[in-house]
Amino acid sequence: MSSEGAQQDGNGGAEDGDRTVRVVLVDDHRMFRTGVQAEIGVTERTRVEVVGEAADVDQAITVITATRPEVVLLDVHLPGGGGAEVLRRSAAMMADPEHPVRFLALSVSDAAEDVIGVIRGGARGYVTKTITGTDLINAIFRVADGDAVFSPRLAGFVLDAFASTDAPPIDEDLDRLTQREREVLRMIARGYAYKEVAKQLFISVKTVESHVSAVLRKLQLSNRHELTRWAAARRLV
């Protein structure tokens, strides 16, 4: 199992010379996709060719089916059912014995249930959006080769989950929240200011405020201090 800091050559590309890996970017934030494209998509330097992009589940399936990349960089939280739905609908392509499509989750979320969910769905790895461009390129090549790649802290979640035969209990309160509301919940509970949450999630401060209000209403909580205690009691922070 690889960490995201595995070794590369001095140019930030792959170790194996002229080989190029074809990649599709799946993320609902256009600015983030643009940033990743700028960071990894200079093919002559990085040996990564970005062959397609998608912003939701349906677009992702269309683009992946049309381009058959070696690696898909997949956000966990997407309109249309999330990364898990993309994986479910891509099962046949992942199982292709000659040209398998492999998935590397790239998300702002570092929550255990998100990590475990996409790995159980068939993703070959999970790294957070704090990863450097150099390490992301390396992770892409590792996944293309069939390795499993995780940010170091997240690997423990996977080991713990698959070491246990017990299914995690269903939390009906948490299930009331959307994926985006869960992201905002965790960041607020960790002490992030609204502006910091907005910056990390590429949304406006007003949208953050709306999500927090929705979370408080659905969980029948009064303020962010109660929200923090609620999240801590469920080990979400």
Automatic annotation (TrEMBL):
**CDD domains in UniProt:** LuxR_C_like, REC_NarL-like
Residues of the Response regulatory domain: 22-144
- Stored PROSITE patterns: HTH_LUXR_1, HTH_LUXR_2, RESPONSE_REGULATORY
- Name the InterPro entries on file: CheY-like_superfamily, NreC/VraR/RcsB-like_REC, Sig_transdc_resp-reg_C-effctor, Sig_transdc_resp-reg_receiver, Tscrpt_reg_LuxR_C, WalR-like
Where on the tree of life does the source sit, at the highest rank?
Bacteria
Keyword presence, Nucleotidyltransferase = no
4-aspartylphosphate sites (modified residues): D75
One Pfam match, given by its short name, reads Response_reg
Q: What is this protein called?
A: Response regulator transcription factor
KW Transcription (keyword) present: yes
Phylogenetic lineage = Bacteria, Bacillati, Actinomycetota, Actinomycetes, Kitasatosporales
Pinpoint the HTH luxR-type domain residues: 170-235
Q: Which organism is it from?
A: Streptomyces bugieae
- Cite the entry's keywords alphabetically: DNA-binding, Phosphoprotein, Transcription, Transcription regulation
